[in-house]
Amino acid sequence: MTTIFGYPLIVILSQLMLGLVNGSFYAMLSLGVAVIFGLMGVVNFAHGAFYMLGAFGALLGLQWFGIGYWPSLILSPLIVGTIGIVLERLLLRHLYKLDPLYGLLVTFGLALVAEGSLQNYFGSSGQSYPVPSILTGTWNLGFMILPIYRAWVILASVVVSFTTWYVIERTRLGATLRAATQNAPLLQAFGINVPRMVVLTFGGGVALAALAGVLAAPVIQVSPLMGQSLVIVVFAVVVIGGMGSILGSVLGGLGLGVIEGFTKVLYPEASNIVVFVIMAIVLVVRPAGLFGKE
Amino acid sequence: MKFGKMTLTAAIALTAVMAASQAMADDVIIGDIDDLSGPYADVIGKGGIEAINMAIADFGGSVLGKKISVMTTDHQNKPDIGASKFAEWADQNHVNMILGGSNTGVSIAMSKKALEKKVPFIAIGAAGASLTNQDCNAYTIHYAYDTTSLANGTATAMVKGGAKTWFYLTADYAFGTQLQEAASKVVEANGGKNVGSVRAPLGTSDFSSFLVQAQGSGAQVLGLANAGADTQNSIKAANEFGIGKTMKVVALLGFISDVNALGLKTAQGLTLTTSWYWDANDETRKFSKRFADKVGHPPGENQTAYYSATLAYLNAVKAAGTTDSDKVMAELHKEKINDVYAKGGYIRADGVMIHDMYVVQVKTPAESKAPWDYYKVISTMKGEEAFGPVTGLCKLAPKS
Predict the structure, then answer these.
(1) Which positions of chain B have pLDDT values less than 70?
(2) Closest Cα to residue B219, out of B238, B202, B196, B237?
(3) Cβ of A48 under 8 Å from any chain B Cβ?
(4) Of A22, A127, A138, the CB nearest to B261
(5) A21 touches B at CB < 8 Å
């Protein structure tokens, strides 16, 4: 059997695959955080809660109204994105002129409120969301058994990440958005409604989190606390990728997912801290992150 | 460095402690320090507080002419919070007994405070058997179950059923390692073999990497030495990756709340050990109905243990005629515990509450006739058999 560093090739390949699945979630979540920070300067600590709300949207849609997985993939992000827009109008917009710390505290508080309220109602155990019937089953890849649903997660994440990157970096809308962050008064002088762009950006970022939540629902237990531990990792990914860098968050997410996957084999006890160790090293060597601009 | 400052602020906000409810100083005060908001909040949590209140109501609301009141707080699974709350309540609120829930690490820290402050402490839901072995003391009682009895139940049943080779997926803290160790001993003693293990950090959300490693081990059994959300997510992923086709998945500590959360379709066939089941007989069903009317679902084993421990303590206070900790502890060690939770239960010199345990299997969706109709009892273990002989590691109980 072929081995690399004493580990059989099939072990390496299967962990690479699983790392990519987790990395896909990191990438999609970091993407939202990066878009919101890059374009609005808001450190959105409620991102994990929006991810959780996305999953709950799918779960409750199914339980209460019989809405299946595929409609939920659109509906849940729309609903949660709208909640995001309302919150931006009510709370966040008053804070743009202040230190980013205020935005962080408001979003952190919102996350605690959302998680606490849902926990009060649904308990902490969480509930199961079924895998959609067309994606059940497994593929035998030769080196591992891959559940079809996990392959779909990777595909969906790549499509979503590429689309977001394309919209922001390559379209006129994206150019306007970026211009708004550079010089809002000038852009307004050209007759563009900057506050509306900002609110749509926030809604879009939040919807991305909710989409990741719907994608995660069949994989892990849908519980009010599901976003809590993830949000910290996601912030580490964003810091490593470079705050606000879209490419950085996508590549950072996938890369860290893979590194974390390998850690689970080489030294499992460290698998929940390896991301932070890398973050510390990156901050020392490149304080702006791997893809960030000084 | 802005980010560092922000992270620090967030961390400080996270550790904010919930205010405790106030109780009068001349009452007999029962404290409850449990996970009320984290991953184990459904194991005891709010239902546990309700169970204490039910026990107080059933006892008559007062003892030795004093009103009985309850104080509760959330230890957030942090040993330092549990220990400091314990000390604060002992010093400032003159609390008479503390029930502590669900986390072995926190319970060990609180049991050290129990000795220091001479306040009786009843650990429920924490599984680590060290509480009555190397970490034992004269003021700590371990109710419900421990890693020894869980391993004796599930591992013995499985190995005798022909599942000889074991691989463990273990929660990487005191509880997980103690549970794995206990199960490994039982497996070997019954002629089985332990082929390996992997330690996953508490609160891992994706267990697939660990499961693929387990699958590669070629063992017949995957022993899950974890609890709560970790157990649920491992079983869920095991299902997804088809682990069940080549290995038997065993939850060494599984709760009825886990089964309910996973649903029978995923959890069916799972073997586990429990100290109590709501649908065992008329008495348990009647109690469960009362509990469900208040909480919305039947009680879990630990919630009923909360009820039983509260009653046992109050009975001891009544018999001793005082709330003096040493006299009450002596009385507790003499008492026979006969209630809805246990029949003929007693507290051994090392602090273990000895009572029968049940090995159960989770029903299939077709077998389940009603909501929460989840278990079929495979075997009943006598208390002495389940909790094993005195080990001698606890100085209070020399090996006989």
Answers:
(1) 1-25, 400
(2) B196
(3) no
(4) A127
(5) yes
Does the global pTM surpass 0.80?
A: yes
Q: Residue A272 — pLDDT band, cuts 50, 70, 90?
A: confident
Confirm or reject contact between B371 and chain A (CB < 8 A): no
Residues of B in contact with A289 (CB under 8 A): none
Q: List all residues 6 or more positions away from A79 whose beta carbon is below 8 Å from its beta carbon.
A: A57, A210
pLDDT tens digit sequence for B243-257: 888 899 999 999 999
In order of A59, A168, B42, B245, the CA distances from A162 in angstroms are 27, 10, 40, 37
Looking at residue B210, its amino acid is F
Length of chain B, in residues: 400
Instruction: Measure the CA–CA gap between B321 and B9, rounded to whole angstroms.
Output: 50
Q: What is the DSSP string of B69-117?
A: EEEEEE-TT-HHHHHHHHHHIIIII--SEEEEES-HHHHHHHHHHHHHH
Give the pLDDT confidence of B271-281 residue by residue, as tens digits.
Answer: 899 999 999 99
Q: CA A146, A149, A153, A158 torsion: positive or negative?
A: positive
B168 touching A, CB under 8 A? no
Count other Cβ atoms within 10 Å, centred on residue B265. Answer: 11
DSSP string, A184-246: HHHHHHTT--HHHHHHHHHHHHHHHHHHHHHHHTTTS-B-TTTTHHHHHHHHHHHHHH-TT-H
- Residue B52 near residue B28 (C-beta atoms within 8 A): no
Measuring CA to CA, how many Å separate A227 from each of A113, A220, A233, B23? Answer: 13, 11, 10, 36
Which tens digit of pLDDT belongs to each residue from B334-389? 999 999 999 999 999 999 999 999 999 999 999 999 999 999 999 999 999 999 99
